[in-house]
Every structure is written in structure tokens, then in C-alpha cells.
Design goal:
Keywords: Glycosyltransferase, Transferase. One of its GO terms (molecular function) is UDP-glucosyltransferase activity. It holds the Pfam family UDPGT. Belongs to the UDP-glycosyltransferase family. The protein is an alpha/beta fold and 453 residues long. The protein has two domains: 261 residues, Rossmann fold (3-Layer(aba) Sandwich); 169 residues, Glycogen Phosphorylase B (Rossmann fold). It is 41% helix and 15% strand. It has 18 helices and 15 strands. The protein has a seven-stranded parallel beta sheet, sandwiched between helices. Strands 12-11-10-13-14-15 form a six-stranded parallel beta sheet, sandwiched between helices. A two-stranded antiparallel ribbon has the order 6-7. Helix 2 links the parallel strand 2 and strand 3. It is globular, with a radius of gyration of 22 Å.
Length: 453
């Protein structure tokens, strides 16, 4: 006699070292597939602003369980490696994570799997092994950058100075060579943050073969060569199964505030949308040049900024918008008035632009963003001006910014390519599409362990 399978109980344990958006989206996606989802919030003693969306999210999605667990960050006197606030918090979370073991063991129904992010892979691998719970990792970057990180243990075992400041390419099996210019500056030998490789990246990369699977927020068509090489074992032959399930749809609804009232009054594909996220790192001089470029490009613009200059806000308030604070890129990009997207190439924003077919002006600022920009350019989602370098590396004149915006807004070929990306993204998520199939395979794997009888 056969019995229906019990819905898997999936527990999400995001590190909290970055925004929760990726895990909000994942929670909704898994819950929609008849899974029981519990979201564990690892709060610090002094919750920072990124925790403020939690209440809104759980009010909107009461089918998802919330469990708060206070993780206390180490103070400076207890840090063994650095006084860097990020690393201190990283060390504190990793040291305290084993404390959630009894809580995980007591949850009902029993946990079928845990999903977390890369930055706490090493610690969670040990914990979940002890508890006999499968661990899955949600990658919040491009497949290209993920492949590079996964290959780090081999790269650095062959040559500990691989990331010197010399020019050249890094070769990874099955992938296009990675230019040394696109390696994050913090990885380079002369960077004061170079210790991040040993303390932060390497232990987690070395633990990847021990996890049950890796979810990628991307889709086959968008990064076909990289995904094929990852799945076939050409990059590494000991990686777990790879599930490209993107673009993962936003949990947000279109906001009905004065920002969107203003957008409703604009013509289709007429507005330049600018958003560099919560880590806007441009110099004051560069911000002034960007302001100038936006003013003279000839198109209305919407600039979402964490901090806004009052004088510039007043100067532009009638024909454009400068908004303080952060708005969901997904919400704005879904609006018909948006014609171009100026962004640093954080991967969540790239996937949102792909879903809605909005051409990007890629302007990488730090971290994985140059490799992400490579993907954007190769797939035809937008334009990347390599000569502009990393954020803060060069002062890009407002006239140059204006010219690029005019090109993107006026070039029908650029817009056609972005629309092609949108069609492929939608096909990937439809029944029979590559991402839908990958998600189905993942859910079946999760159900397999928990069949009754």
C-alpha cells in the first residue's frame, strides 16, 4: 500500500550578513510548492536596518513560520583576527551558530533540509552533519562568480600569489578566462583586506563538496556555458548537484505611493532608473558628475539614494525624482515607464532586469560585480564601459555618462536584445522551462527522504 509523501519541512537560515531579499523570495517560492517553510532570523543584539523588512514580509506571508534566535556578535576585545566590523560580526555569527542545534533538533515536523548562504557554509556543514540534516546553499551571485569562488582552493593551492596585481588571466576548466582586472580588489595581494581570502572565502569554498546541493538564482540560457560546465563536473568534479532556478520572482507587490504615481505619468520606456543599492560608495566628486550626466542626458530619471542632496532634489523635483531610501528594484523595473537601469550589477538587480527586459548600464563598484557585468554584456542585457573601472578608481565625467545613457535609451538593437533576455527568462520559469524543471527536481529530492511507510 502506498502513502502520500509528507510535505518537506524546509528551514531557511540566512546569515544576516546581507539583505534578506534572496531568502524572502526563496521562502515564497518553496512555500508555493507545498512545502512547510520556517525562516530563522539570526538577530544581533543591536538589530541593524536590514532587519526592518521582516515584520512586513511575515505579515504578508503568514504561511511562512518565523523563528527569532539572538546571535550575539563578538565585541572588539574578543576578535582574534581584525577590528573590521564585518569580520567581527562574521566571526560572532560563526562562533554562535552551534547554539541553534537544540532548536533545530526540536522543530516539528522534523526538518528535511536547511537552506543557507555561502558565508556560513563551513560552520553549518559541521552542524548539519552532526544533526544528520541535508544542507543546501543558495548562491546570491552569478554562476560565473560562484564558479570562481568554488575553484579558489585549487587556484590558491597551486599558487598562493595567484591574485597578485600583475595583469593576465585566470584559467578555470570549462570557463572563459577570468581577467585579473575583474578579480575583486580585496583579493589582491597588496589589499589590506586580503585576509578575507583565508578567513572568509577559503573555508566556505572548501566545504561546498559536503553540501547536498547549490541553488543558483540564474537560468540556463543566461549563463549556458558556465552552468553546463558546473553541472558536468568540468569546473570541479566533486561539487554537489547544481539547481539553476532563476530568476527567482520577487515577493513584493507594486507599491502604490507617490513614486509610482509619478511613474504613471511618464511615457513608456522614457525614464532612466538609477540605483546603486545600500552600499553606494561613490566619491562626492563622482556623485556630482553623475548628477550632471543625468541632468543633461535629456531623459527624466528616477534615482534611489540612501542619502540625497537637498539642493539637487529641489532642482529636479518637477521633471525627475531623487528618492531617499531603498525601493525594490523589482517593483520599479516592472513599471512600463522604465527605459534603462543604471546599476552596480548586484546580482539580484541583474535578475530583476532580466525578468523585465530593461537594458542596463553596468557600473561595477566592488566584489563580484565586474564578473556579473561580464555576464550582462555577453547575454545582451546591457552595456558595460570597462574603461570606467571600479567605483572610485577613476572620475567619470558627466558628459561621458550622458552619452552612454543616450545610446542605451536610443539604440533599438540594445532594447531588442534586452527583450530577448526577458522572453528567455520567462520561458525558463514556465512549465517545461529549465528553471521550472530544476525546481521540480529539487522538490522531488527534498520529498524523497520524507515519504511515509
Amino acid at each position: 500500500m502506498s502513502f502520500p509523501s509528507q510535505p518537506p519541512h524546509i528551514v531557511l537560515v540566512p546569515s544576516g550578513l546581507g539583505p534578506f531579499n534572496h531568502f524572502f523570495r526563496l521562502a515564497v517560492m518553496l512555500a508555493s510548492r507545498n512545502s512547510i517553510v520556517t525562516f530563522i532570523n539570526l538577530q544581533s543584539q543591536d538589530p541593524s536596518p536590514e532587519f526592518s523588512p521582516l515584520t512586513t514580509f511575515f505579515n504578508d506571508h503568514q504561511e511562512i513560520n518565523r523563528l527569532d534566535f539572538d546571535i550575539r556578535s563578538l565585541n572588539a576585545s574578543n576578535s582574534t583576527t581584525t577590528s573590521d566590523p564585518f569580520i567581527m560580526r562574521y566571526e560572532g555569527i560563526n562562533r554562535s551558530l552551534p547554539l541553534i542545534g537544540p532548536t533545530l533538533s526540536s522543530l516539528l515536523p522534523p526538518i528535511s533540509s536547511i537552506f543557507s548562504d555561502f558565508v556560513i557554509t563551513a560552520t553549518l556543514t559541521q552542524l548539519t552533519t552532526d544533526l544528520d540534516i541535508p544542507l543546501y546553499i543558495l548562491s546570491t551571485t552569478s554562476a560565473r562568480f560562484f564558479s570562481t569562488v568554488a575553484y579558489l582552493p585549487i587556484l590558491l593551492s597551486k599558487d598562493s600569489s595567484k591574485f597578485s596585481n600583475s595583469s593576465g588571466n585566470i584559467r578555470i576548466p570549462g570557463l572563459d578566462p577570468v581577467s585579473n582586472e575583474n578579480i575583486p580588489p580585496t583579493w589582491l595581494a597588496d589589499s589590506p583586506s586580503n585576509y578575507l581570502l583565508a578567513v572568509y572565502l577559503l573555508p566556505n569554498a572548501q566545504s561546498l563538496p559536503k553540501v547536498k546541493g547549490v541553488l543558483l538564482n540564474t537560468f540556463d540560457w543566461f549563463e549556458l556555458e558556465t552552468i553546463t560546465s558546473l553541472k558536468s563536473g568540468r569546473v570541479l568534479d566533486n561539487l554537489p548537484p547544481i539547481f539553476p532556478v532563476g530568476p527567482i520572482e520577487s515577493h513584493d507587490l507594486l507599491e502604490k505611493d507617490h513614486l509610482f504615481s509619478w511613474l504613471h505619468d511618464q511615457s513608456a520606456e522614457s525614464v532612466v532608473y538609477v540605483n546603486f543599492g545600500s552600499r553606494e560608495s561613490m566619491s562626492k566628486d563622482q556623485i556630482k558628475e553623475l548628477e550632471n550626466g543625468l541632468q543633461i542626458c535629456g531623459h527624466p530619471f528616477l534615482w534611489i539614494r540612501e542619502f540625497s542632496h537637498d539642493s539637487f532634489l529641489i532642482m529636479t523635483k518637477n521633471e525627475s525624482k531623487v528618492m531617499k531610501g531603498l525601493k525594490s528594484a523589482q517593483n520599479v523595473l516592472a513599471h512600463h515607464a522604465i527605459g534603462a537601469f543604471v546599476n552596480e550589477c548586484d546580482w539580484e538587480s541583474v535578475m530583476d532586469a532580466a525578468r523585465h527586459g530593461v537594458p542596463m548600464l553596468a557600473w561595477p563598484q566592488h566584489g563580484d560585480q565586474k564578473m556579473n557585468a561580464e555576464v550582462v554584456e555577453k547575454a545582451g542585457l546591457g552595456v558595460w564601459v570597462k574603461e570606467w573601472g571600479w567605483g572610485g578608481e577613476k572620475l567619470v565625467a558627466g558628459e561621458n555618462i550622458s552619452e552612454m545613457l543616450k545610446e542605451i535609451m536610443g539604440d533599438l538593437n540594445i532594447r531588442f536584445k534586452a527583450q530577448t533576455v526577458m522572453r528567455e527568462a520567462k520561458m525558463a520559469c514556465e512549465n517545461g522551462g529549465s528553471s521550472e524543471k530544476a525546481l521540480g527536481e529539487l522538490i522531488e529530492m527534498l520529498r524523497g527522504k520524507w515519504k511515509l511507510g
